[in-house]
Amino acid sequence: MSKAVCAKQSGFWSLPARTMTLACLLVFMAQMATTVYLPSLPTVMQELSMTRRATELSISIFVIGAALPVLFWGAAADRFGRRLPLTLSLTLFISCSALLAFCSNGTQLLVLRALQGIAAGGAAIIARIIVRDNWSGDELARRLSVLSIAFIAALGGGQFIGGLLSQYSHWQMGFVLMGLTGLAILLLMQTLPLEAGRGAGPRPPMATAYWRILRRPGFFWPACVGGLGFATTVTLQEVSPFIMQQGFGLNVTAFGALGLVIGVAYFTGAMAVNRTVARFGGKRLMQVGASIVAMTTVAIMLLWWSGVLVGLSGMALFIVLYCLTIFGQAVLFPNSMAMAVSDAKEQGAYAMALCGFLQQCLAGIAAAGAVLLEHHGLWAAAIASSGFIAWLIVKLRM
Q1: How far is the C-alpha of 266 from the C-alpha of 326, rounded, in Å?
Q2: pLDDT digits (tens, 9 = 90+) for 50-82
Q3: Is the Cα dihedral 36, 39, 42, 47 positive or negative?
Q4: What domains lie within the chain, and their CATH numbers?
Q5: Cα dihedral 290, 370, 239, 104 sign
């Protein structure tokens, strides 16, 4: 499907609308595989006789699994087209979700979560490649902000649904829901024309193609900024169930409902991008988002270490800062990705895959680090460092 074809079609269920629906569902599925499971982490720890560190590792290992094979997913999408690798990733995701619905010990959980992450990472990056196939520049940033709305629905709605499932059903039902979502996406994909691959003709080796893109400052620095912002949100997601439920005494249903508040914060940021990027430009909005993330994460660190974040007032203040961080990331992320891949627009799938790889790796490192820090206040330093470094890069390099 070419940009010209997309531009000529309009309507509620036009080809561009269906393309965006497919991409949004893929992003929704990949993110919700984590958030629907967040409220149940303390329950999972008890039921599967796991340590707190191992239970949190089930989040980190999903993020890491999503990151590591992204470069291969991108190369596969370039050679074989979007349809075949997307079909493989969805089939793996559905299979892992079905098995997770019946897992009975910690080892099974961790192995299946790693495999599910590999599948989710492939689906999410191919979704962005499909969007990149059809739009570019500030319009690409606007379309990526629409994907952010799908991310929001999974971020807030997934946590809310997960809280309800944990309270009234069983946490494994979330994986049943994920499997059904993957199946619906697989069926929708069959109705869409997707860009074909380049076949087995002459091309530079995969490593060479990625290295050429990585050496471009206009690609590298925006990709890193978006990844550092992503790292802050992933770390906050990972530590929040224990902070809110064990630190502030919030019950599982209330914690699930908190996801709706976080979702509103992300939605507001994504809509701000959608409505204003044409007026202000992606670079300026990225600067605003990076500044917000830096200020709020540093504030969380200082207030946490000073002992202010205690009791009901402390919980309210923590939630406000958490939501502001999410808002800043919602403004930062689509603009950083659009700037990066537009700088290497001739590289197509490779550029989007490499951008996703860098951002997922930074998020995976942050999530794994949060587990190793054991939350003795150092998690707050980790998010503040990520936010501040992202702001410095924007100020000094862009």
Answers
A1: 6
A2: 887 888 788 888 888 888 888 899 888 888 888
A3: negative
A4: 15-199+206-397 (1.20.1250.20)
A5: positive
Q: Which of 181, 162, 180 is nearest to 172 (CA)?
A: 162
Largest CA distance in the chain: 64
Apex CA 129: angle with CA 127 and CA 31, to 5°?
Answer: 30
Residue type, 328: G
Q: Is 51 left (phi over 0), alpha (psi -120 to 50) or beta?
A: beta
Q: What is the pTM of this model?
A: 0.72
Picking from 154, 132, 177, the residue whose alpha carbon sits closest to that of residue 30 is 154
Whether 324 contacts 292, CB under 8 Å: yes
Query: Looking at the chain, how many residues does it have?
Result: 398
| C-alpha closest to that of 29 among 190, 180, 241 | 180
Give me 31's structure tokens. Answer: 């993110």
Separation CA 243–CA 375 (nearest Å)? 9
Sequence-distant (6+) residues with CB within 8 A of 347 are 209, 212, 213
Query: pLDDT, tens digit, for every residue of 30-44?
Result: 888 888 887 788 888
Range list of H helices, the chain: 3-8, 15-35, 41-47, 52-67, 70-80, 83-100, 106-134, 137-152, 158-168, 173-189, 206-214, 217-242, 252-280, 282-305, 311-343, 349-372, 378-397
